Amino acid sequence: MMELTPMAQVTFDRLKEKIATTYAQHGYLHIETPSIERSEILLAKAGGETEKQIYKVVKTAETADEADQALRFDHTVPLARYVVEHENALSFPFKVTQIARNFRGERPQKGRYRELYQCDVDVVGRSSLPLYYDVDVISTLLETFESFELKTPVLARINNRKIISGLIDFLGLKEWEDLVFRVIDRSEKVSAEETKFVLREAGFPEDRMMGLLEFIGIHGRRTKVVEQLRGLGVTNEEFLMGVKELDEVMWLLEEAGYRKRITADMRIVRGLDYYTGTVFEFILPAYRRVGSVCGGGRYENLAGNFSESNKFPGVGGSIGLSRLFYIIEAEKLLPVAAEKALKYAVIPLSEAEVPYAMRVADTLRAEEGAATSVIVMDKRLGERLNYAAKIAEKAIVIGENEVTTGTWEVREFN
Amino acid sequence: MMELTPMAQVTFDRLKEKIATTYAQHGYLHIETPSIERSEILLAKAGGETEKQIYKVVKTAETADEADQALRFDHTVPLARYVVEHENALSFPFKVTQIARNFRGERPQKGRYRELYQCDVDVVGRSSLPLYYDVDVISTLLETFESFELKTPVLARINNRKIISGLIDFLGLKEWEDLVFRVIDRSEKVSAEETKFVLREAGFPEDRMMGLLEFIGIHGRRTKVVEQLRGLGVTNEEFLMGVKELDEVMWLLEEAGYRKRITADMRIVRGLDYYTGTVFEFILPAYRRVGSVCGGGRYENLAGNFSESNKFPGVGGSIGLSRLFYIIEAEKLLPVAAEKALKYAVIPLSEAEVPYAMRVADTLRAEEGAATSVIVMDKRLGERLNYAAKIAEKAIVIGENEVTTGTWEVREFN
Fold first, then answer.
1. Candidates B12, B24, B51; nearest CB to A371
2. What is the nearest CA distance from A312 to chain B, expressed in angstroms?
3. CA of B237, closest CA in chain A: separation in Å?
4. What are phi and psi for residue A125, nearest 5 degrees?
5. Phi first, then psi: what are they for A33, rounded to 5°?
6. Which helix (H) or strand (E) holds A227?
7. In terms of DSSP bridges, do strands A392-398 and A342-348 run parallel, antiparallel, or are they unpaired?
8. Is B162 exposed, middle or buried, given 0-12, 13-18 or 19+ CB atoms closer than 10 A?
9. Cα–Cα distances in angstroms (integers) from residue A174 to residues A167, A179, A180, in the given order
């Protein structure tokens, strides 16, 4: 895990607090789900790579009634279980947020952690969910990044999986669907030559190669992209629906004031995940190489593995806070906070002044809400002041005179 | 785990927030430690019962370099490791708080959870730590309970382990020390007859039985208790030091305004734990049967297992929030919050009004910081208002007229 010193933790906590506040202001209800779930629940949706990363949990003194358990690796699977279990206590559309650690048995490396904070928003509908909520999720996440006050703005790259699925169908490429998704997903990391090579190796039809590559290259402003896509002459219904949805989602975001923060991009597919409509990824354009700092999309049926009676379509997104914090620190994306953890250090000169010092501290907490410590140390005053200067902005020294007169004096540290 | 509905979660989060705020205002720095630690670290201090409750963690795809790992069962062991590892980045006395879930492989039952929130404050010194910090910890925890605004006040029962250790030494009862601690710890749950029976069974000397029982019965106001203890005629140095410390800690708490919230009590020993001085437990006197809702004490050497070069004396306490929340809900100790999660639900009459509705919501968030949702549903207005009434205090319906005139009207739900 990323273990921080108390000062770095202050910055981390502030970002986490801004996420929680922005999500709440946008109407997302906070829930908490267990870290430990039965393995069969967690593994219902997990595929190869995920399964390898799952931590199993075993009691030291095994008892017979203990089911096979593991640590959750994301918030989506526990959310699906939660929605089905508490269905009758919820109002749909259910706008929900989870901000907590997930667990992945990765080999630890820079910016990748085994315990990582993920901050999810989701809107879950019962049987249906208007397209508007795709906009609600993306705008909430954009506002959240806005609240961070990073030195560099974020850009949401948006796509719709129906466009690529419809195209694949239209071009008769069904048997290469997985390959196409994988190739698109990697297209920014490798050269066009390498992409072609991979497609050829897999026996992808040469006559449709250039068409696919041209399609992948489409990105930019909504109006331009929509025009280019319509110009491809694809008559497939799913494709056209995808273009219409992308157009609508982006138009609404523009209307809501995010014109400069969004772009359409056919390279965004979100891997082999379960998304079925809108997909998006946020990047910091000035730090493109660090990759995505947020992502999500629309899924047809959240709880397919847990409920047969109801369908729960949803749309959601997640900020990987641990990784984002690593990037923010490494690239110095926040103004350096010279702040200290405490406002006041109250220092009684001798034991006799401790009760009065405690009362002064109480007054400062009650009247200013100020973080305040009373400092008692078996050390000379100079050393006590050195300690106070490290942790607090201001010092208040309490001697006999202050006690008698019922006053105190605030000294600023420089 | 205790999994809550979104409305109950609001109450839980509010209590957690009050804890975090009060701890911070009293100068405790927040840190986070990993949930997963190497087993040898976690087990260094654990004895029988604890060890049985530890969850081991195993990667599904085991790799050779994977050390034996487990989930932490409290915050104290990770804190000890943290202090030794980050010693040079910290200022001592180090006032620190951890508010997070711990993991215990208990058989789940009412009020006992496998994943439980514990909210710790600790002050760790390097080589020495003034007695004042015992007062700092207890008063911070008392203030925290104050901030909950429960219908019933809390009472801190305070003792000092040196008193009982010194007495045991003075009476030549060293070989029965563990038994005496265990008997005292259980003395409130069983009759005096049963206590005597247990002592007799173990061969405890009959001539010192009544003395011990009389001692256990001492509790009440500081001045009375100190007088009774001094009246026992025990000349042991540790005993006298314990009485002096208890007197001083309680006197300072009285001076700081907690006279009505504290009592001295020889029955408080905190089991067989590693405490060496002040020990305390909070109860809700009106709900005595639910037992302790907070506890802690002073320990001589926090990091004895991790550092040989330095001694880290400490004092700390912990609120078991999951259990406390269970009690608060079961006994209805909070005024019923009729509150809803959202302040405003903004309802556009048709799709055409969605952009304006989003702008209204943005204005309410920016100007009032109000939690606000835009409601879009393929349902009649009546149903949308019903949904809005469930989640929000007020509704704002946006039609053509509002868009044209740039106005809106707020309706209160009753």
1. B24
2. 15
3. 22
4. -100, 165
5. -115, 160
6. helix A222-230
7. parallel
8. buried
9. 10, 10, 9
- Which residues of chain B are within 8 Å of residue A30 when distances are taken between CB atoms? 6, 9-10, 13
The segments of chain A whose pLDDT lies below 50 read 64
Who's near A393: CB < 8 A, 6+ residues apart? A339, A340, A342, A343, A344, A412, A413
Structure token digits, residue A209: 């190669």
Q: How many CA atoms lie within 13 Å of A219's alpha carbon, on the beta-carbon side?
A: 16
Q: CB-based contacts of A276: which residues, under 8 Å, 6+ apart?
A: A161, A162, A298, A299, A300
What is the mean pLDDT for each group of 10 consecutive residues in chain B (414 residues)? 90 96 96 92 68 78 66 93 94 97 82 90 96 97 97 97 95 91 89 91 90 94 97 96 98 96 96 87 93 94 79 96 94 81 95 96 95 95 95 96 96 86
Q: What gap in Å lies between CA B120 and CA B318, rounded to an integer? A: 4
Quick one: pLDDT at residue B373? 96
Three-state DSSP string of A66-114: CCCEEECCCCHHHHHHHHHHCHHHCCCCEEEEEEEEEECCCCCECCECC
Q: Which residue has the tokens 């904070």?
A: A117
Residue of B35, B82, B84, B390 for testing the chain A interface, max A β-carbons within 10 Å: B35
Cα-flanking dihedrals φ and ψ of residue A115, to 5°?
-115, 115
Measured distance CA(B320)–CA(B99) in Å, rounded: 10
CA–centroid distance for A352 within its chain: 51
User: Encoding tokens for residue B58?
Assistant: 């195993």
Least Cα distance to B154 among B284, B271, B21, B348 occurs for: B284
For residue A62, CA distances in Å to A34, A379, B326 come to: 20, 52, 27
3-state secondary structure of B396: strand
Contact by Cβ (8 Å): B93, A379: no
> Which pair of tokens denotes residue B331?
């006994």
Polymer length in residues for chain A: 414
* Shortest alpha-carbon distance between residue B159 and chain A (Å): 21
CA distance linking residue A398 with residue A403, whole number of Å: 7
Q: Which residue of B has its CA nearest to A34?
A: B1
DSSP helix/strand/coil, B114: coil
SS3 A7: helix
B115–A35 C-beta distance less than 8 A: yes
Name the closest residue on chain A to residue B370, using Cα atoms. A25
CA distances from A395 to A402, A406, B227 (A): 14, 17, 39
- Number of residues written out for chain B: 414
Q: In chain B, which residues have their Cβ closer than 8 Å to the Cβ of A374?
A: 132, 136
Q: How far apart are CA A124 and CA A27, in angstroms?
A: 13
Q: With H, G, I as helix, E, B as strand and everything else as coil, classify residue A316.
A: strand
d(CA A217, CA A210): 11
Q: Quote the DSSP letter at residue B67.
A: P
Residue type, B397: V
Q: Which of A128, A359, A378 sits opposite B130 (nearest CB)?
A: A378
pLDDT for B64: 44
Distance from CA of B349 to the nearest CA of A (A): 14
CB contact under 8 Å between B256 and A358, yes or no, is yes
Nearest CA in chain A to B361: A26
**φ and ψ of A100, to 5 deg:** -165, 175
Q: Beta B69-71 vs B115-124: how paired, if at all?
A: unpaired
Residue located via tokens 């891997």 = A271
B374 to A25: CB separation less than 8 angstroms, yes or no = no
Between the alpha carbon of residue A185 and those of residues A118, A168, A247, A332, the distances in Å are: 22, 15, 22, 28
| Maximum C-alpha span of chain A | 94
Report which residue type is found at B392: A
ipTM of the complex: 0.90
For A52, the 3-state DSSP assignment is helix
Considering only CA atoms, which of B198, B42, B16 is closest in space to residue B97? B16
